[in-house]
Amino acid sequence: MTNITKKIAVITGANKGIGFETARQLAREGFHVIVTGRNLQAAQQAAGELTENGLSAEALSLDVTNEASIVAAVAAVERRHSRLDVLVNNAGVMLDAFDKTPSQQPHEVWHKTFDTNLFGVVEVTNAFLPLLKQSSAGRIVNVSSILGSMAANVDPSSTFYSFKIPAYNVSKTALNAWTVHLAYELRDTAIKVNAAHPGFVKTDLHGVDAPLSPAEGARTSVQLAMLPDDGPTGSFFHEGTVQPW
Ligand SMILES: NC(=O)c1ccc[n+]([C@@H]2O[C@H](COP(=O)([O-])OP(=O)(O)OC[C@H]3O[C@@H](n4cnc5c(N)ncnc54)[C@H](OP(=O)(O)O)[C@@H]3O)[C@@H](O)[C@H]2O)c1
């Protein structure tokens, strides 16, 4: 076991994009960050960039759709640190075919999207829960999207009403519902569970036309990872503002 006294944070899909910037900002805030990725080499490169700049980081292989990978990652964190303070479920995919309507999206797209954006989050979270319960102030951040907001999707006056990216949006709606259910289960514990909308961010997932930088997109996840003990649980935020479910 290591003798790290800092708070420990695991971030999924942290080799690039919003996840990498979340890891960087949490490390700057004094966390020891575990930069996970499905490609270990990419995670090692990302963690190396942090340690080269004097930050406390390590890399770990974690494919959120692979049960053996999840079990091995949890075992490694338990062996090295015996607890976990923050889990940021950041890994996500957007696989929809933009030239197809909701009813035309290939079933494979629905399955693959849900495997990562919902089932991956549920399995990773459940596997890390015993270690999060060892923390005096566990925080779970589910990186969602305003595109998963049912309120926005049914309101013709919403900016996001016409952004119908079916498998992606519905997977984030389900992720929001999972957030509410888990927060309810853990309501009498020290663990807070919240969903984050990062904003629209220049990454491989969204593309270069988005208004925010990855560093700006990481801010909501970092805020929710560092909530005080009297902070909210079971809510949906963007930059400190509650978002409609
Ligand atoms: N960008 C936006 O405007 C925006 C808006 C709202 C919400 N979000 C959400 O923000 C999160 C981060 O997205 P991003 O924009 O930073 O996209 P990104 O740059 O494409 O990063 C996505 C990350 O998820 C990882 N990932 C995908 N499948 C995985 C799996 N099975 N196991 C482990 N990691 C996996 C990717 O790994 P690889 O490098 O190996 O592919 C990558 O590290 C996502 O949940 C996304 O839905 C983004």
Give a concise summary.
By secondary structure, this protein is an alpha/beta fold. The chain is built from eight helices and eight strands; from the N terminus they run E-H-E-H-E-H-E-H-E-H-H-E-H-H-E-E.
Question: Please, could you describe this protein's structure?
Answer:
- The protein has 8 helices and 8 strands, in the order βαβαβαβαβααβααββ.
- With 245 residues, the protein is of the alpha/beta class.
- The longest helix is centred in the middle third of the chain and has 26 residues, at 107-132.
- The protein is globular.
- It binds NADP nicotinamide-adenine-dinucleotide phosphate.
| CATH-derived architecture | 3-Layer(aba) Sandwich
Radius of gyration: 17 Å
Approximately how much beta-strand content do the residues carry? 5-15%
Distance between the termini: 41 Å
The CATH H-level homologous superfamily: NAD(P)-binding Rossmann-like Domain
CATH topology: Rossmann fold
Total domains: 1
Strand order of the largest sheet: 3-2-1-4-5-6-7-8
Q: List the secondary-structure elements in sequence, H or E.
A: EHEHEHEHEHHEHHEE
Helical amount: 40-55%
Number of strands: 8
Number of helices: 8
Structural class: alpha/beta
Compounds present? NADP nicotinamide-adenine-dinucleotide phosphate
Q: CATH top level?
A: Alpha Beta
Report the uncertain regions: none
